[in-house]
Design brief:
Largest sheet: 6 strands, parallel
Shape: globular
Number of strands: 11
Oligomer: single chain
Number of helices: 9
Structural class: alpha/beta
Strand order of the largest sheet: 1-11-8-7-5-6
């Protein structure tokens, strides 16, 4: 068996086309979505990610509000920039690029939850638990969108998530068990006893432990879908969590890079547009109520 490729790059392109149309409709209503970023220091990886995000935005008509600070920036200085973006109506949503070298939970918590395009604010994660609509984490939703757009069945599927991190593993388990997904989820990690036995039961495997090659060919059920979310450095190169020979038994496999990474970018753009659409709907409702005197 040779696995079908879950192509994140081509899916990102398709989503950009769809979002371009939605942004155009918003502009016709006088609403221009804007992404803000807060970047601290000179980390090359962080600069690459922020540049890529703003490039994506420019391609679909979203404006950029970029705030780059030196590595010497204090907690108070970064918080002041967050307050500025919270108050700026031109900023639909924004993110604080990690790492900052500061108290990142305090910075994240200071972001207006409605403008949290990463979907990781404690309030938004709480709404996820309670089942209320709120911005959702980009990488977990990117995984789900990648599966959907390649017609991988999710409803009723047995899913094993390997990794318990805040940005992927934990929220992904919650999202997959919603009624809109209806999967049955087992959340595993590096401390799981007999990890191979757990993974072998899965129709869908999502590896997000950050351990190179933790999911191997002998652990995967033939025909399963396997998504590689892990990013590690091995001998100076990026290494994923899924061994290359898994493609010999899996039904679908996401490449790394080129699989889930582009989908994270796609869902970030989606969150920005959705936030702008929600704001436009709220403004229209207020205007309608005022016109009718209700």
């Amino acid at each position: 068996m040779t696995a079908q490729i879950l192509d994140g790059k081509s899916t990102l392109k398709a989503i950009k086309v769809e979002l371009t149309q939605r942004v155009a409709r918003l502009r016709e209503q006088g609403v221009v979505p804007g992404l803000g970023t807060v970047l601290v220091g000179d980390d090359p990886g962080s600069h690459w990610y922020v540049n890529a995000k703003h490039k994506d935005c420019a391609e679909i008509g979203i404006t950029s509000l970029r705030r780059d600070l030196p590595a010497t920036a204090t907690q108070a200085e970064v918080e002041a920039v967050i307050d500025e973006l919270n108050a700026d109506p031109a900023c639909t949503g924004f993110l604080v690029q990690q790492p900052t070298g500061l108290d990142e939970m305090a910075l994240l918590s200071r972001v207006d939850p409605a403008k949290d395009v990463d979907g990781l604010h404690p309030t938004n994660l709480g709404w996820l638990v309670l089942g209320k609509r709120a911005p959702l984490p980009c990488t977990p939703m990117g995984c789900i969108e990648l599966l959907r757009r390649h017609d991988v069945p999710i409803a009723g599927a047995k899913v094993v998530v390997v990794g318990r991190g805040l940005t992927v593993g934990r929220p992904l388990g919650l999202i997959l068990t919603r009624k809109s997904e209806n999967a049955t989820v087992t959340l595993c990690h590096t401390g799981t006893k007999d990890l191979a036995a757990e993974v072998r039961q899965a129709d869908i495997v999502i590896a997000a432990a950050g351990v190179p090659g933790i999911v191997t060919k002998d652990m995967v059920k033939p025909g399963a879908a396997v998504l590689d979310v892990g990013v590690s450095r091995l001998d100076g190169r990026i290494a994923g969590d899924v061994a290359p020979d898994v493609a010999e038994v899996a039904g679908w496999v996401s490449p790394n890079p080129g699989g889930v990474g582009p989908m994270t970018r796609a869902l970030l753009l989606t969150n920005i547009v959705q936030a702008a659409e929600s704001a436009a709907e709220s403004a229209e409702s207020v205007a309608s109520a005022a016109a009718t005197g209700s």
